[in-house]
Amino acid sequence: MANQHFQIVIIGAGPAGMAAALTTTKAGLETIVIDDQKDSGGQVYRNLQANQETSPAYLGQSYYDGAKLAQSFADCGAVYRPDCTVWQITDMHEVALVSRGKAELITADYIIIATGAIERPMPVKGWTLPGVMSVGGAQTLLKQAALGADNAVFVGSGPLLYLTAWQYIKAGLAVRAVIDITGEKQWRSAIPFAPLALLQPDMLAMGRKWIGDIRRNTELIYSVSTIEIIGQSQAQGVSCTLSSGDKIDIDANHIFLHQGVVPNVNLTMATGLAHQWDHQAHCWRPVIDVTGKSSDEQIYIAGDGGGIGGAKAAAIAGRLAASAIVARYGKPRFLAQLYYKLRHLHYLSIRPFLDRLYLPSADFRLAQTDETIICRCEAVSKAGVNAALASGASGPNQLKAFCRAGMGRCQGRSCGLVVQEMIASHTGQSMAEIGYYRLRPPVKPITLAELASLEGPWPD
Ligand SMILES: Cc1cc2nc3c(=O)[nH]c(=O)nc-3n(C[C@H](O)[C@H](O)[C@H](O)COP(=O)(O)OP(=O)(O)OC[C@H]3O[C@@H](n4cnc5c(N)ncnc54)[C@H](O)[C@@H]3O)c2cc1C
Q1: Which CATH superfamily is domain 121-259 in?
Q2: Best substitution site from 32, 44, 312 to test ligand 1's pocket, by max atoms within 8 Å of Cβ?
Q3: How far is CA 456 from CA 89, 97, 103, 297, 452, in A?
Q4: Which atom of ligand 1 is nearest to the CA of 87?
Q5: Which CATH class is domain 366-434?
Q6: 160 alpha carbon to ligand 1 midpoint, in Å?
Q7: What is the C-alpha separation between 252 and 248, in angstroms, rounded?
Q8: Pairing with 404, which of 174, 183, 351, 451 sits 20 to 30 Å away (CA)?
Q9: Whole-angstrom Cα distance, residue 415 to residue 407?
C-alpha cells in the first residue's frame, strides 16, 4: 500500500505546531499534525480542553490564554493525529510514526518539526530516589490529573520552577520550601541585559508575582552551593550548603528538581540536520534561518525545539515557518512575514537576560559527588564516567562504548549534556568541539512488533 502523502507534515501540537497549521490550512495546503499526547496543547497548554470544563484557577491565566489558539486549531481543518509518536524522518522525507501498536510512513513536501523543549538534567546526589522528580513532571501531574503532593520541596532555578511552585500554592498544596540555586554570578552577568528584558514588562511582572506569592507562603532559600537528597530507598529530605557555609537540612518526601529547559534535539539530530552549540543558553540547537528553515531545504523547525523562546514566541515561530513554506507554493505573504519576524524578535528580547540569570553554574550542571548517577538508564555514576575517561575515552560516542552512558531508553536526554561537559572539563576542549552523542532512529522506543507492523516499502 502506497504511503499517505501530505503537502505539510507538522510534528508537535504545541503552540508552534498549532499556529503553523492555522497558516498552512488557511492557504489551502493539505496538512497533518502529529503529536504523541492525547490532546493538543503541547507542554504549556497540556490538557487544556479538559481543564477548561472546570477551569481550575491555580493553573493561572497564562495557561487559559492558549484556549483561542487550541480552538482555532481544532477548527482549522488540518488532519490531527494525537497519541501518535514520530520515531524517524528519512532522507526521502518519509515520516515514520507509530500509534496504538501500528507503525506507518507518511511522505511530505515539507516538514515542520515543532517538538519543543526538554528539562536540562540536574544530576544531584539522590536524584534517582523514589519521591524525586522533575518540576516538569510534577506540573504535568497537576495539569493532566490534578494531582499534587503536600510539603514538597522545589529545588533549582528558572521560570518553570517558580510557576509550578506558585501553581501548587494556588492549588492549596503546602510547599515546604523553594531552594533557588541562582547565584550572584548569574545576576551580575544578566543585569546588563535587563533593559532589553523591559520590552517584556508583562513577563517580568508575572515572574515577580509568582515569587512574591511564594515568599508569602513558604521559605525561599537563596545562594546555595551544594545540594544533595537524603535517603536510602526513598527520598527523606534535602541537605544544602549556603554560600555562607551554613548547612540546612529539610525533611521532605517529595522533591522536585528543575534548572531550565533546552531544545529537544533528538529528532532533529537523528534526522542529520546541522546543529550548533549555543554558548549563551549552554545547549545544542538546530541551525535555522529567521524563518526556521533548517539545513534541509524541506524541513523547518519552529518553537522551543529551535531555541528556547517560550509559548508566545513558539506560536509566532510556527506562523513564520508556515508562511515561508506557503510562499514556496507561490503565495508570498511579505507583510505577514515581516510582522511575524518583528513579533518574534520582540518575544525573544527577554532571552539574553533569562538565559544568563537562569544558566545554572557548572557546580549544578555537573554532579558534585562521585556516586551520583549521571546516566539514569544505565545507572552509570560520575565515577563510572570518569573511569571511562581515564581509560582513554575521548568523545561522547566512544564514552558510550566504554561505559554504556547514553545507550538507554531516553537516548541521552538525561545525561547527554552532563557527559559532554565532563569530557570538556577532562580534555580542556570546548563544548562545541566535544560534540554530542550520534543520535539515530528510532528517537523514541518502539517494539519489534510495531516495526514489523509497518507495511513496505520500509524506510532506509
Ligand atoms: C515539562 C515542561 C513544562 C512546561 N510548562 C510550561 C508552562 O506551564 N508555561 C510556559 O509558559 N512554558 C512552559 N514550558 C516551556 C515550553 O517549552 C513552552 O512554553 C512551549 O510549550 C513551547 O511550545 P512548542 O510548541 O515549541 O513545544 P511544546 O509545547 O513542547 O509542544 C511540542 C509537542 O510535540 C510533542 N512531541 C515531541 N516529540 C514528539 C515525537 N517524536 N512524536 C510526536 N510528538 C512529539 C510533545 O509531546 C508536545 O506535545 C514547559 C516546558 C517543559 C519541558
Answers
A1: FAD/NAD(P)-binding domain (3.50.50.60)
A2: 44
A3: 16, 14, 11, 26, 10
A4: 41
A5: mainly alpha
A6: 12
A7: 13
A8: 451
A9: 10
Quick one: cell of 61?
491565566
**Fold match flag (4-118+262-332 vs 121-259):** yes
Q: Are 257 and 132 in contact (CB under 8 A)?
A: yes
Query: In which band, very low, low, confident or very high, does the pLDDT at 456 lie, cut at 50, 70 and 90?
Result: low
Instruction: Give me 150's grid cell.
Output: 503536600
Q: What is the Cα–Cα distance from 178 to 256, expressed in whole angstroms?
A: 9
Q: 413 C-alpha to center of ligand 1: Å? A: 15
pTM > 0.90: yes or no:
yes
Among protein residues, the one with the nearest Cα to ligand 1's atom 8 is 44
Is residue 55 pLDDT above 90, yes or no? no
- Give percent above pLDDT 90 in the chain: 96
Q: What cell does 280 get? A: 549563551
Q: How many CB atoms lie within 10 A of CB 68?
A: 9
**Average pLDDT over the chain, rounded to an integer:** 96
- Sole residue written with cell 495557561: 63
CATH (one of 3.30.70.1290, 3.40.720.10, 3.50.50.60, 3.10.560.10) for 4-118+262-332: 3.50.50.60
Residue 65 one-letter amino acid: D
pLDDT at 54: 85
Residues with CB under 6 A from ligand 1: 11-17, 34-37, 42-44, 85-86, 114-119, 136, 139, 160, 163, 261, 267, 303-305, 310-311, 314, 443-444
Q: Comparing C-alpha atoms, which of 96, 91, 106, 440 is closest to residue 296?
A: 91
Q: Which pLDDT belongs to residue 459?
A: 60
Average the pLDDT over 368-390 and give the result.
Answer: 97
Q: What is the distance between the alpha carbons of residues 229 and 358, in angstroms, rounded to a whole number?
A: 21
Phi, psi of 455 (to 5 degrees): -80, 145
What is the per-residue pLDDT for 56?
87
Could you tell me the residue ranges of all domains in the chain?
Answer: 4-118+262-332, 121-259, 366-434
